[in-house]
Amino acid sequence: MTGAKRKKKNVLWSKMHTPHWEDFKQWCRKRLPILEWAPHYNLKENLLPDTVSGIMLAVQQVTQGLAFAILSSVHPVFGLYGSLFPAIIYAMFGMGHHVATGTFALTSLISANAVERLVPLSVQNLTTQSNTSVLGLSDFEMQRIGVAAAVSFLGGVIQVAMFVLQLGSATFLLTEPVISAMTTGAATHVVTSQVKYLLGMKIPYISGPLTFFYIYAYVFENIKSVRLEALLLSLLSITVLVLVKELNEQFKRKIKVVLPVDLVLIIASSFACYCTSMEKTYGLEVVGHIPKGIPPPRAPPMHVLSAVITEAFGVALVGYVASLALAQGSAKKFKYSVDDNQELLAHGLSNVIPSFFFCIPSAAAMGRTAVLYSTRAKTQVACLISCIFVLLVIYAIGPLLYWLPMCVLASIIVVGLKGMLIQFRDLKKYWNVDKIDWGIWVSTYVFTICFAANVGLLFGVVCTIAIMIARFPRAKTLSIKNIKEMEFKVKTEVDGCEQNTLLSPLSNGNCSEEASQPCQNEKCSLILDCSGLTFFDYSGVSMLVEVYMDCKNQSVDVSLAHCTASLIKAMKYHGNLDSEKPIFFESVSAAISNIHSNKNLSKLSDHSEV
């Protein structure tokens, strides 16, 4: 009896603990996506394109790291660290296959506000000039990176807290016009911050509201102090970069490897500056000394956290919004899914952990994602390979960048922002689809220009909520009791294959799609009753067009019934709809009749439940 009880106890014990271990493994795979794709990595097919992409990405990471560190008011070497550690963390926790995390212009601008406010240049004259034990840098430089690291740490903590609270689902308030306007306005700020290097001018640090206008007012007042040599070199660099990148884009299908024009320009300009002593002869500003190696980790100064709360929230929100937009765009382009909450965790840890290694705030950047697209990267292995080359720069090549002219570095940054700046072209489509979205775009951009990226983002979200509340009384609501009156069941029989389709109006404000596998060897049809769509915006039209295109790719005919004239006009403008077949009908019965006549069905029974 004792043995039987012991055996029964062991069975119960195993039943209690086995599910828990399986649940833990499933949780690990969910929270560490690298455990999902790494074991199935195809070396033969993916290693070569990932290696090429990693090399090209490393060039972007190094140049942007140096420039965005200066933009963040810290020593350039800390930008190299910010291009290394966040990329490694995101590769383990992130879900975007073509998202390269590193230094980011918008978060650098926000953290610069805290750095200049807490450790201004005037402090440099008051501090001792003795070098610290960290890379031989001065106390002033270490105080500045301490503030930037504190902003990164607190911003990451906020993102992790948002992950714990599952706030990723709140991203539906971040509509495409709001994100587009905010990123365009922030890119305009970054270009403005690089004007002093492009023109070779000495411009004092200016912060606060209307900074954009004060900077250009200062430039025009002191236009005589522009260095002609820096201006000509900037114009030459921008021209070469734009032309070569356009040619790379034009012939990307014919050439296997694109020309790394950024790397070529860096090497050529640095060599020319060294040989001609441009720094002394013409007074050109150069990057300067880049120390070798990585210092041991150190915790950010916790006593300044309370003073950087505003900047930390800005870094957390702006960095996450911009990064999530790139991840979702990548997922949509390459047909995989991205979890909004998991991205919060990935970017949060990419800010918290690197802050112990003297890193400035990080996020994904459109320029780096474009590089991964153009070089046909397959997985996050490309980002890990780029980290190897960034390490090579940190330990060996870094000191050779001493002679890199700042005007050339600024030119690379400005051209890299082209993807954000050309979003001005979106205004035309917003005007044609939904003029309210056009108004939100313009007002969000103006607020971003006049104040800051986080203020513009907050204004755009508030406008979106206000528009939703204002439109809500116009929406048609369906009573659960009478919903069957709005339903149709269409039963079709073709070659012994039977399919039932439920047709009902789309709900206002959102669109949910339940996809089912169509019957084999049958031409399927889908009818959407749009009588419940009393209003729509650009995102809603995009969703409808996306559903239409996905169904079309799967050989499913889509018909839309009860569409308003404005919805028909917006959909025709937005997407390449099939012009040969009619897709808009006055009623559901008309759409069914069209399907019946086109397919020449032998029998179509229409059954309604009331």
UniProtKB/TrEMBL annotation:
Q: Which PANTHER family does this UniProt record tie to the protein?
A: SULFATE TRANSPORTER
The way it spans or sits in the membrane comes to: Multi-pass membrane protein
* InterPro entries on file: SLC26A/SulP_dom, SLC26A/SulP_fam, STAS_dom, STAS_dom_sf
Asked whether the keyword Transcription regulation is assigned, the reply is: no
Q: Which Pfam families match?
A: STAS, Sulfate_transp
- Which ranges does the record mark as transmembrane? 145-165, 203-220, 226-244, 304-326, 346-367, 379-397, 403-424, 445-470
The species is Equus przewalskii
Q: Which residues form the STAS domain?
A: 526-595
Q: Which Gene3D superfamilies match?
A: STAS domain
Print the keywords alphabetically: Membrane, Transmembrane, Transmembrane helix
Its annotated compartments are: Membrane
The question of whether Cytoplasm is a record keyword is answered with no
Q: What is the recorded name of this protein?
A: Anion exchange transporter isoform X3
